[in-house]
Amino acid sequence: MLHSIFKRAVRDQLIVTNPCEHTELPKIIARKTRTLTPTEYGLLLGAIPDPYQLLVETPIETGMRWGELVALRPRHIDFLRRSVTVEETITEVS
Q: What is the dihedral of CA 73, 71, 89, 91, to 10 degrees?
């Protein structure tokens, strides 16, 4: 993102060179992932006690990321329309 900002500044002749031009980003090692089959999903839900099933179902059924899930508040849930609104996210910084 910073590279793009400086690139635009060079194009608009606000600066002469992009200080990010030769910066190399750290390599991200891709992890192999596997999607549960419907049968596995059913077995997983069956093994979880009822009070905790929503903790598993919500991220799977909505596709929400961890930061979106932990930022959920009661005001984000519309029980009448059966919908959840993602209004914010929490980012962990190391």
A: 160
